[in-house]
Specification:
The protein is an alpha/beta fold. The protein contains nine helices and 15 strands.
């Protein structure tokens, strides 16, 4: 039993690079964490951690031990989940984090159907446009829009593409003219997304010219926002031209509230192409509640305009 506790604590310290952070994750006193790691190193007769007042890092032997122990703990978690799933429907608390705009548009039908199918399942939905720490915050599933990056011990399941559309209201285009080529945008008010600061360059490549030249236009405008829904509303209200995700404006395009322009060009092509993903820790791989939620999410998204590629990896 002590050996198992030592392994859990050691992995938490390595993951968080500190004894206090590991203690918070595990709900233990920092002194208990320190004592268990000391006991582990003494039992093995090996130094696993380099310790300083500022950080804790793995020694070469510690890294090798960490990789083996982590695999053991993941297999134990998977065994627990698999055993529980043999004769059990999804139940308990499912903690999900997702972006605000995406959630308000698409998750309510999913929540309603989820509760209808699995009445014993409790959904704890955390809305945030920030990047949650899935491990520290005990997140079961994170909906992320962007590149998945290199995240160890996290599985990403692709939900949909994230194509961008250049669009504006018909009223605005009648008043200001319809851009025919990317450089025409220099004569328009462009509604820009800003997070840490305005990003002025919009990138274009002619469709069918894979690997072809990319044109960057340093667009200008008088409206900036760090929320895509605000930009969508501004575009619908005739404030200017916007570059927005197809899943966000699909219904507006279908209803004629917005008009797509520059349709012969890819917007933000190449390395900036991203997707929509459901991400979950590797130790949740066999969780029936995680699988039930993601399968239902894919099913529901496939019925919405602007959502494409929902079942492909």
């Amino acid at each position: 039993m002590n050996k198992f506790a030592e392994m859990q604590v050691f992995v938490a310290v390595a993951d968080t690079s500190g004894f206090s952070a590991a203690a918070r994750r595990l709900g233990l006193a920092p002194s208990s964490v320190l004592r268990l790691v000391d006991a582990l190193e003494e039992r093995l007769g090996a130094k696993l951690l380099n310790r300083s007042t500022r950080s804790v890092t793995l020694t070469e032997g510690g890294r090798s031990f960490y990789e083996r122990v982590q695999l053991i703990l993941e297999q134990l978690d998977a065994a627990d989940i698999a055993a529980a799933a043999l004769d059990e429907e999804p139940q308990g608390v499912l903690r999900v984090t997702a972006p605000v705009t995406f959630s308000t548009m698409y998750l309510m039908p999913v929540c309603r159907e989820l509760h209808r199918r699995y009445p014993l399942l409790q959904l704890d939905l955390q809305l945030s446009d920030g990047m949650s720490n899935m491990i520290d915050e005990s997140i079961d599933v994170a909906i992320r829009i962007g590149a998945t990056g290199d995240q160890p011990n996290v599985i990403a399941r692709r939900l949909a593409s994230h194509d961008r559309v250049i669009c504006a209201s018909g009223e605005y285009l009648r008043a200001r003219g319809t851009p025919q080529k990317p450089s025409d945008l220099l004569a328009h008010h462009c509604l820009q997304f800003c997070y840490d600061g305005p990003r002025r360059g919009w990138r274009f490549r002619r469709i069918g010219a894979a690997g072809g030249a990319i044109e960057e236009v340093n667009v200008q405008g008088n409206f900036f926002a760090n929320n895509a829904e605000m930009l969508r509303q501004a575009a619908v209200n005739g404030r200017g031209v916007a570059m927005l995700a197809s899943w966000l404006v699909g219904a507006d395009l279908s209803a004629g509230r917005l008009v797509g322009v520059l349709g012969e060009f890819e917007a933000n092509p190449g390395a900036m192409d991203v997707g929509m993903f459901a991400m979950y820790p590797a130790n949740r791989r066999g969780s029936v509640k995680v699988k039930a939620f993601i399968d239902l999410l894919i099913e529901q998204l496939a019925a919405h305009p602007g959502i494409a590629d929902s079942s492909r990896r």
